[in-house]
Amino acid sequence: MFKVLVTEHIAEPGINILKSQPDVELTYDPELFRNFERILEIIPEYDAIITRSGTPVNKELISRAKKLKVIGRAGVGVDNIDLEEASRRGILVVNAPTGNTLAATEHTMGMMIAAARQIPYAHRSLKDERRWDRKKFMGVELSGKTLGIIGFGRIGSRVGIRAKAFDMKVIAYDPYIKKEKAEKLGVELVDNLDTLLERADVITVHTPLTDETRNMITRKEIEKMKDGVILLNIARGGIINEKDLYDALVSGKVRAAAVDVFVKEPATDNILLEAPNIIVTPHIGANTYESQTNVAVIIANQVLAALRGEEVEFSVNAPFEETTAKVMKPWMELAEKLGKFAVQVACARSKEIVIEYSGDLGEDVKAFTAAFLKGFLAPIVDLPVNYINAPFLAKERGINIVEVRREEGVNFKRLIRISCGTEKGTFSIAGTVIEDKFPKIVEINGFLFDLSPEGKFLLIKNIDIPGVIGKLGSILGKHNVNIAGFQLGRVDRGKEAKAVILVDDDVPEEAIEEMKKLPEIMEIQKVDLG
Fold first, then answer.
1. Which of 265, 311, 509, 523 is catalytic?
2. Which among 96, 98, 100, 106 has a CA at the least distance from the CA of 14?
3. Residue 265 falls in the annotated catalytic set
4. pLDDT tens figures, 80-139
5. Given 73, 107, 206, 236, the catalytic residue
6. Total-model pTM
7. What are phi and psi of 136, to 5 degrees?
8. What share of the chain is helix, strand, coil (3-state, %, to 5)?
């Protein structure tokens, strides 16, 4: 019998699922979060706890929870949970990140229409000021306009479907989505962000907040947009620079904006509240009865699966037994870094990825495949990615993974090789672990290297003739980029070669463009392995 404690309100369908299980004894006290001392007193009895944001599942609580196997968060954020302590004690943390997909989609459409037609301002003028001022609230129609969607995942794609019903032309930018998915929905997938910025009449962002997307839209990007553009952020605070958006609204460059999320929340003193022609809501994209029901059902089922040792789709952490982690950790780290490398360089839109395991890597390599997918998916999806949910997310995105087992390799007894088909041919990268401790990238497209998979570097395809290194170094020096190391992989002098330049700093786009103009350079890509 599993004892489950629910300390805050969750929708009745989720509670009913838990109540109906013959192997579950449920304690549901939606006001218990207000009495933390009582929770500390009774938590040693329970196998699972389900909370929202009001219960601090901190180190003190976890240390007293002697029987606790799973912590369920009825929602997305886990700021109130000590993940490190939970992982250290082998307690699984699960959440319900997909329950609000339709709610966020519909909120986006509502905000889009409200911004285009100035509905909140017209409402306030008539209801509060008792003014009948029709000319003041001249709007624009969505029909015939071009909607640009940045991030074409779960929510972005659903916004696109609905926008087409409004007779909008829909274009999308997402470097990690296959063109076939967009084409199937009648959406044009553009190759770069600038194209979308220049063509769209309405722009909405639906990406996770990562190092790549933080301040994705600043003054520089806004200047590339059409005059009178409508801009929406119902995704994450910080993707659009708030000060730059404020300035663009004041200047009239942006006709109207609609924002549900802010860098700092509650956002009661945010500069955007002073901007003209902006519609703001207090992060209510997920606030519907239906989404809260979805969240409750998802978290109930996730907690039950975890208690019964079944597959869990939305785990926030993935604790390992210490003995297992010691043996697997270097290979898991290698596989994850190979995933990070592959998605940045070549495999983002590949239909099929082959993972080749050579030598004695144990009977079951699924953990390494999950680690690869974690590295591959983390930069491109709007859910927390870990070893448990990575395979589910890959399947959802139509990524087909083929695992191949081989005898010992030629140069290395044990090796993991990743290969995928691209528009330019086949890309491959391979790695091994030296002395059972140190992960190494040892091959890129057939060229041999000895790279530690960490930090920032440039991957360059060039003609191997004298002077290339000097020219590249001069350009990087001019842009104040310090070179930390250099490696060259080649077959014959004067032929095609691969070069890796390790750098201490981010390389500005101006430097990249300057290097691309060198006649000896065939291709150059930035890679960041953290």
1. 265
2. 96
3. yes
4. 899 888 877 778 999 998 888 999 999 999 999 999 999 999 999 999 999 999 989 999
5. 236
6. 0.75
7. -65, -30
8. 35, 25, 40
